[in-house]
Structures are given as C-alpha cells and as structure tokens.
Design brief:
about 475 residues, Nucleotidyltransferase, domain 5, alpha+beta, single chain, 6-stranded mixed sheet, 15 helices, about 35% helix, 5-stranded mixed sheet
Length: about 475
C-alpha cells in the first residue's frame, strides 16, 4: 500500500510517494511565485498552488509502481487564505513572510499581555494569521465581509479537493489564535485580532479523515485525504523524533525544533511553542524559527548576479578574517531577535573586498543567525540531544552544513531522506487507510562534527556582539511581550 505526501511550501510544492514500509518511491517538485506588490508584502495566488500540486502529483503517480491509496498534507505555516463558501479566494493569500501587520503585531503585545501570549505560544509577529487578520479588519474590511472562511494554506488546498473545511492542532497553534493549554481557539486572541470564530475551521486530530478528492478533472479523484499538519510539525513527525530529540531544517527559512513532554511555553517569547501533529494536546515542540535562510541567499544571489555553484565555490575557500559581515534579514527576523523591522545589509566593505568574500559572507550570516536561534532554544530549557538531525535543501550542501555545525557547536546528522516533511505528511495520510508507515530512517553515516576554527568562532562572537549592540532587539521585544522591565 502506498500513500502520497504533499508538502505545500512557500515557493514550491514537493510530492512524494511512500510505501507502507517507509520507502520513497517517487518524488516531484513544482515551483510557484511569491508576489510582493508593495514593500514588505508577501502574497501568492492559491490557484497556482493547486495547479502545481496536481502537476507534481500526476508525475509522482506515473512514476510509482503502484497506485496510492491516500493523501497526507503538510503546509507552510501562519498564512491566511480568505475565501468564500465555495472556496474561491476573495484576495491573494497573505504569507508568513509578509510584514504589513507590523503595527498590529506591536499593538497586540499590549492588548493580550504576558499571560495570554504564553498560552498562545508565540510573540505577536507580522505574517502570523492573528496580526494579519487584524490588519485585514482595519484595511480591507470588505474582504472580510465577503469571506466565509479564513484558512491555513494546506486547509484551503484540501477544501478544494474534498469540500471539507477542517484544521488540526499543529497549524492552529501557528496562528496566534489558538490556546495551547486548552487546545481550542482562544477567545481573548479572537477578540484582540478582530476575528469572528465562524471564520475559523473546526479543529480535529491531524490524522483524521478529511474527505475524498471529488474535484472534477483531478487525477486524485477518489483518494481519501488526511487533515495533515504544519510543515515544521510534519518534519519532526516524518523523522519520528521523541521527547528530547531535535532537528534542524534548512530551507527557505530555518527551524530548530526540540520535542517537549508538555506545552511549557517559553516566557521570554523569543522562541515558539507549537502543538505537534496528532490529537489535541497530545504533543508539543519548541521551535527556533529563522526567516533569514534560503530566502536571503536567493535575494543575495540575485543582487550579485551569481548562481549557487559560484557561491558554494566561494564558501569552499574558507571564511577569511577580513571578509565583510552579512546581515541576512531580508524579511525581518523571528528567533531570537523578534524584530520585523530588521533589514539586510553588508558591513565592513573595503577596497580589498572581493566578490567571493561577499558570496561566502551570505552563508556565514545565515549560519550565525541559525546559531543565535539555537542558543535561544537551549536557553529556554529545550536543548535537543545530539546528534541533531539535519534536513531540507540546505542540508545537502556539505560546506554549509559544516559551517552550521561549527557555528552551533553541535554534531549534525544529515537525514537519509531529505523529504522528511512530505514523509511526515504521508505518515498522517496512512492513518486514514490503516497503514502504519514508519518514520524516515536516520543516517548512521556522514556525521558532521564541529570544526575547531578560531576564525569562525571569533567572527561569530563579533557578529553577535554587533547584532545585539546595534539595537538590543531581542531584549526589547521580549520585554514588551512579557511585560518585564
């Protein structure tokens, strides 16, 4: 018995076919654009998602030795798809990288207060559904009036296929509208974000049956669909991580995840606490969420007219003492700085600065940002045991993975399956047809050990000192969020 796992990402969808023994039988990817019609906006046309999913799924099914029996979904977190009763979007989807709701997020810190925010698991940040909905209520009230539903991306996709409107704990916990302790939509958050509860989908366990594909013309007609989960939650589920274990996902953004025995939110709000996939209240994980990953690399390569091969070659030359510093904050930053106003730049440029130095400084700045997020996760009492499993597209780059290991001071073990998020979605899909798909196997080879590199250690200390001294960003925002002085 085989199952499709569909991971609806920010810039592309990945579809995998997984056997009931856990083997990846086939995979395909289709890209779609992220639009920015105004400075700081990040939007997408949901119909492009559906088109890409259908094309990638058809390719995978054609390559599989057997037909799939079910579908599991994973999706990018935090975004909002406003749609009418038929599922037609009333405006473009607003994505997690969107920063238009910065003022609303800042106001919510005072409106909600420390106790409520702790129960919501995160500091208010633009791009989360709650602040986005408050912005829409203030700036596009007609769009709200024309909407029947405000859905997470993967839940909108499932609605298109099955007609069922449902969500589950892991995606709900990424909206800033969900009470982690009570396991339901938060009345206080709904009021503060000006969200009618009727706009939100009912919450059911992640592996629940979400209807059969009935969309006319779809190659998937007749297949049952599980509710699925948020991408970060599906990644740890795909790896089968247990309490105390963790992962590092390196993609458009980056995430340090550490599994928790109970919710136990981080009172500093520099990290996030989210629900794991499964039943309501069944599991949780701490997340250090970094926005400045592959998105920053893609932008920097565009600015310099370079490609990835040239950047990797520059990194292979090794970090040099006089290289410039790169601040990769093209869309603000979350963990640990929690500041949507941060912006990207280079510093330390001179007449001696070379093109390769600029390129490798991009990897360096990204690695130091991930390391700062790791320190915040560890500081919250959720240090993951080593080795930490690394996955995502960035984990395939040996040079960058070595730099990350050195910056974190931790052993990293690349996952033998780079599509763990889609495998996690497939595992949830298997539940609706009683197929107990095992987790993706963890590689016993290729362990990456931190290098003894005095240049990297010294430069990382300087990078962090300059970052923290420039605005005291993380301390300021955490104090605002928790009411500390």
């Amino acid at each position: 018995m085989a199952v499709l796992g569909i991971d609806l990402g920010t810039q592309s969808v990945k579809v995998v076919g997984v056997s009931d023994g856990g083997a990846v039988l086939a995979s395909a990817t289709r890209a779609y654009p992220v639009e920015s019609p105004q400075q700081g906006w990040a939007e997408a046309d949901p119909w492009r998602w559906l088109e890409a999913c259908e094309a990638a799924a058809a390719e995978v099914i054609d390559a599989m030795p057997e037909s799939p029996s079910a579908i599991g979904l994973s999706g990018q977190m935090h975004g909002v798809v406003l749609c009418d009763a038929a599922g037609d979007p009333v405006r473009p989807a607003i994505l997690w990288a969107d920063s238009r709701s910065v003022d609303e997020a800042r106001d919510l810190r005072g409106d909600l207060g420390a106790e409520v925010l702790a129960r919501l698991g995160s500091a208010p940040f633009p791009g989360f559904a709650g602040p986005t909905m408050r912005w829409l209520a203030e700036h596009e009230p007609d769009a709200i009036r024309r909407s029947r539903w405000a859905l997470q991306p993967k839940d909108w996709l499932r609605m298109q296929w099955t007609g069922e409107v449902l969500t589950e704990p892991s995606d709900a916990s990424g909206t800033l509208l969900y009470d982690l302790v009570d396991g339901r939509w938060s009345d206080a958050a709904l009021t503060a974000c000006r969200v009618s509860p009727e706009l939100l989908a009912p919450i059911r366990p992640s592996g629940s049956y979400g209807g059969d594909v009935a969309r006319e013309g779809s190659t998937l007609v007749g297949l049952p669909v599980a509710l699925g989960g948020a991408d970060a939650a599906c990644a740890v589920h795909g790896l089968g991580l247990s309490v105390g274990e963790g992962s590092l996902t390196v993609g458009t953004g980056a995430q340090i995840a550490s599994m928790l025995a109970e919710a136990n939110p981080d009172p500093t709000l520099r990290t996030h606490t989210f629900a794991a996939v499964g039943d309501v209240g069944a599991g949780f994980f701490r997340l250090g969420a970094v926005q400045s990953g592959g998105l920053a690399l893609e932008r920097a390569l565009s600015w310099l007219g370079a490609d990835l091969a040239e950047a990797r070659a520059a990194l292979a030359e090794g970090i040099q003492p006089n290289d410039p510093f790169f601040w990769p904050f093209v869309a603000g930053e979350r963990t640990p700085y929690v500041d949507p106003d941060l912006r990207a730049s280079w510093s330390g440029l001179s007449l001696a600065t070379t093109r390769p130095a600029l390129l490798r400084s991009v990897f360096e700045g990204m690695a130091y940002t991930v390391s700062a997020a790791y320190s915040a996760v560890a500081g919250s009492g959720a240090t993951p045991s080593e080795p930490i499993t690394a996955l995502g597209g960035g984990s395939r780059d040996a040079g960058y993975l070595q730099l990350l290991s050195t910056a974190l001071g931790s052993r990293l073990r690349p996952s033998s399956v780079h599509d763990a998020t889609a495998v996690g979605a497939a595992r949830l899909g298997g539940q609706v047809v009683d197929a107990a798909i095992p987790p993706a196997p963890r590689s016993e080879h290729g362990m990456v050990e931190p290098a003894v590199d005095p240049i990297v250690i010294e430069r990382q200390d300087r990078w962090r000192a300059e970052m923290e001294g420039s605005a005291n960003v993380g301390t300021r925002v955490a104090d605002e969020g928790t009411g500390q002085s």
